[in-house]
Please model this.
Amino acid sequence: MKKWQCIVCGFEYDEAEGMPDEGIEPGTKWDDIPDDWTCPDCGAPKDDFEMMEVE
Amino acid sequence: MDQDPIIIIGTGLAGYSVAREFRKHDKQTPVVLITRDDGASYYKPDISEAKAKGRDPAELVQKTAEEMAEMLDVVVRTHEQVETIQPEAHQIQLAGETLTYDKLVLAWGAEPVVLNLCGDATDDIHKVNHLADYRIFRDNLPADAHVAVLGAGLIGCEFANDLTEAGHPVTVADPAAWPLSQLIPQAAGEAVQNALSHAGVTWHLGHAATGVHHGEDGKYRITLDDETVVEADIVLSAVGLKASVQLAEDAGLSVDRGIVVDRTLRTSDADIYALGDCAEVDGHWRPYVAPLMQCARTLGKTLAADEDDTPGQVTYPTLPIIIKTHACPVIAYPPVDGHGEWQVEGDGSALEATCRDKNGNMVGFVLTGEATNKRRDYIKDAPALMG
Model:
């Protein structure tokens, strides 16, 4: 399980937690999120996310 | 007794983000957003990438005003112009109505700087700071039209890149000697210039536009201060933004480069806050997405807190500016106080520029092309934007 971060606003997506409010089940891999999905905070496109180093 | 609402003026990223952050902490207090446009929610940086991606302006709308109102449980009043703010009465005046607020948030953004140009066609110059402006630009952009872009800053360069990628001949004019001159050093600017030249952009740098005139066959003639004449089918001005402050100034609030707020985002009136492109936060005016989002998170919490709670203070970590010139992408973090000595390494379009103060400490950096992959290393070492 990985974490991804919006490089524009800092919003984090954690694959383990998913985003149940947006209909994305816990455990959903980043690759399985639709390409037209956008950052729930700032609206940036999926392209603007990058994988975070897991500490 | 009905509770007076929190009123937010503006439904751009700032207005909607602060409403969303507030609702994470408070689901009860009424919130009213007021906008002079249609209140559609969109991601503004998408505008300067839309043409090459084949997206129509309508496709950039992520949610309508109605959808936003429902999602955030707020009232969104569209096509309403705020005429005055009366801080002592806690009221704002619309065309046909007076509204009373508990707290007021100013999030109405900035306006494009308008060049003082001569000529009979200055009214035809396009600007693109809002989706509505962009819609008009696209409606007037025939296929293969030659576009003249006035301004080689962030928006000018992103548009030059996008329109060239979409197949338009593009000419860019700017009085500065290199593109993005306010953000990056000359060598990095030249890397961008070369990459975009290679993609097809024609540059007129070092010369200011002086006029825009009607030419023959519906074309425009743009004159520069060295007597050069550029012919184009459409003219786009992208020479910068300035915070919109008039309404705040008329209400007696302190303004400078933006509406003056402290780190709690409070203006000189205790019940009026400001954020986003209209606000100058603790002396910093940063009209970019990332600082705005930091402010929205801080202010959302503050508005939901009890009166006696100490309000949170916004800080900006190291937030570089991302410039989506795909021919040569740029990540820029200019020194916060504007001073320092630049050193540039690398070759071709992959450059790493580091700005150091007189003690040798890194105070800023710029990465271009492939070197943008190293941004994490640089972000770790650079000082906070507003710590």
Notes: Chain B touches chain A through 15 residues (CB under 8 Å).
